[in-house]
Amino acid sequence: MKYAFLFGSNVFIVPGNTISFTNHEQTKIFLKIVTLHHDTPPDQKRAMLTIDADITDTAGNVLRLTGNKPDVPTHFEIMERYDQVLVTRADGTAVLDVHQLDWKTAMSLEHNITAEFEALQPDVVIRLRGDFMAGGLHIEIDNEKLFIDNDSYANSAHAGSGELRFSQEGVLY
Q1: Is 83 left (phi over 0), alpha (psi -120 to 50) or beta?
Q2: What tens digit of pLDDT does each residue of 6-41 get?
């Protein structure tokens, strides 16, 4: 299965459902797509997007989710929709927003991204936004850019054959 991970105006198409960080000594998954939303018959329970996450906010508060649920009680607000998991602080600012886009929405994005979709035909498009820490890396994703520590990425489209990993050297795939 091919996953297209969308970070602002950047897309990375990879065969895996995880995003990790690496620091030369260890590689650790900080986001895993567990299940995807898909249409179901009216008489069946609606299939939901579910994730596992292991991050901290920029203040150092730990957030560990398993199947969209916190492993321990947390002060974060967790909003679930069939196609989205949104984690916010008490003031409403987003820590992590994971949204599965429908194909029509995905194909209305910038041409450099849709061209990759047409060429590589990912099975699903997952948009991520937020402001958090993963393994000591500050990850900030807005509508335009992906920031990993002091490096920023914009308007790029990449395909890889391995796991998507963030590091101090940038994005590895």
Answers
A1: alpha
A2: 999 999 999 999 999 998 788 999 999 999 998 777
Tens of pLDDT, residues 68-115: 999 998 999 999 999 999 999 999 999 999 999 999 999 999 998 999
Between the alpha carbon of residue 130 and those of residues 40, 94, 98, the distances in Å are 29, 6, 9
**Secondary structure, 3-state, 75-144:** CCEEEEECCEEEEECCCCCEEEEEEEECHHHHCCCCHHHHHHHHHHCCCEEEEEEEEEEECCEEEEECCC
Q: How far is the C-alpha of 34 from the C-alpha of 160, rounded, in Å? A: 20
* Distance from C-alpha of 111 to C-alpha of 120, rounded to nearest angstrom: 14
Total length of the chain: 173
Q: For residues 108 and 2, what is the distance between their CA atoms, to the nearest angstrom?
A: 19
Q: How far apart are CA 124 and CA 170, in angstroms?
A: 23
